[in-house]
């Protein structure tokens, strides 16, 4: 079983979009019994809140199923429980390091690295543009899935 944790600041926009998108493509690939997907926040600001309405709207538009959920904060234990901790931006990297310490097992990846870009996933919390975020998330998740297929 490969375990993936998508991480952003609040766990209501980007990381949840990635979680639901990745679950969808993993299911379509018939790999749900081999790949487990979740998401979390580096902050406590949105703990308990459901996915942002803009994220839900974009997922609905794209035919990606989602369920009600509550934002959670990443924990030190998550580092042991997940094989891939996929962050959305450099701020997530700094905040995640405060929670888990050094990435001694090289499990932390920046989402856009999977498509050969070192930039951040665009944050709709600030831009209001969920289309751009979806483009970043879908491209990075598609590339990650291709990588994972070679590991299975």
- Which of globular, elongated, flat, extended, rod-shaped describes the shape? globular
Looking at CATH, which topology would you report?
A: Rossmann fold
Radius of gyration: 14 Å
Strand order of the largest sheet: 2-1-3-4
List how many beta strands DSSP finds.
4
Q: How many domain regions?
A: 1
Rounded mean pLDDT is: 97
Terminal Cα span: 9 Å
Uncertain ranges: none
| CATH-assigned homologous superfamily | Response regulator
Order of helices and strands: EHEHHEHEHH
Structural class: alpha/beta
Helix coverage percent: 40-55%
Number of helices: 6
In this structure, how is the largest beta sheet organized?
4 strands, parallel
Architecture per CATH nomenclature, i.e. the level-2 architecture? 3-Layer(aba) Sandwich
How would you summarize this macromolecular structure in one to three sentences?
Helices cover 43% and strands 14% of the residues.
Task: Give the SSE map.
Layout: E1 2-8, H1 14-28, E2 35-41, H2 53-61, H3 78-81, E3 84-87, H4 90-100, E4 108-110, H5 124-127, H6 130-151
Parallel strand pairs: 1-2, 1-3, 3-4
Write structural notes for this entry:
The structure is a single chain. With 152 residues, this protein is of the alpha/beta class. It has one domain (2-151): Response regulator (Rossmann fold), CATH 3.40.50. The protein is 43% helix and 14% strand. The longest helix is centred in the C-terminal third of the chain and has 22 residues, at 130-151. The termini are close together.
């Amino acid at each position: 079983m490969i375990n993936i944790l998508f991480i952003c600041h609040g766990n209501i926009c980007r990381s949840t979009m990635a979680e639901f998108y990745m679950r969808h493509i993993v299911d379509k690939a018939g790999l749900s019994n081999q790949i487990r997907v979740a998401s979390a926040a580096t902050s406590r600001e949105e703990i308990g809140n459901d996915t942002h309405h803009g994220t839900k709207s974009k997922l609905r538009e794209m035919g990606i199923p989602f369920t009600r959920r509550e934002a959670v904060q990443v924990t030190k234990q998550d580092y042991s429980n997940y094989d891939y901790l996929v962050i959305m931006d450099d701020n997530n990297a700094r905040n995640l390091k405060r929670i888990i310490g050094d990435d001694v097992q090289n499990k932390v990846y920046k989402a856009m690295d999977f498509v050969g870009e070192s930039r951040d996933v665009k944050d709709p919390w600030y831009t209001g543009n969920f289309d751009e975020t979806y483009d970043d998330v879908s491209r990075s998740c598609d590339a990650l899935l291709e990588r994972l297929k070679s590991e299975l």
